[in-house]
Fold this sequence. Notes:
By secondary structure, the protein is α+β, with helices and mostly antiparallel strands. The protein is built from 2 helices and 8 strands.
Amino acid sequence: MNKAFISTDKAPAAIGTYSQAVKVGTAVYLSGQIPLVPQTMEVISEDFSEQTHQVFKNICAVCEEAGGTIQDLVKVNIYLTDLSNFAIVNDVMSQYFKQPYPARAAIGVRALPKGVQVEIDGIMELPSTN
């Protein structure tokens, strides 16, 4: 199978040696998104809820560029520098997903790039075109 590399200016540009997403067949592997505003490449704010919303907006943009929607995500990994923010993640996530929800893991980490509080990556399965 061929690999397609996904890139959109509606999400932050890669700040390292990675692609925003890679599509193999109908599977799309999304790199971690942090709360950078694509136009400025700056962190949206220090507010955790605003950071989480920006991450989901960035994920939506990458999903759309890959030919799907955030609803096509089958697995997400959420990295948090403070697990006490988990309830806020649930609230924000419920504003972007409808049931059935994707599989998910929430992982507490010591630090994230650019000092942000949340990063999310995922795997998307595109609807078959057959």
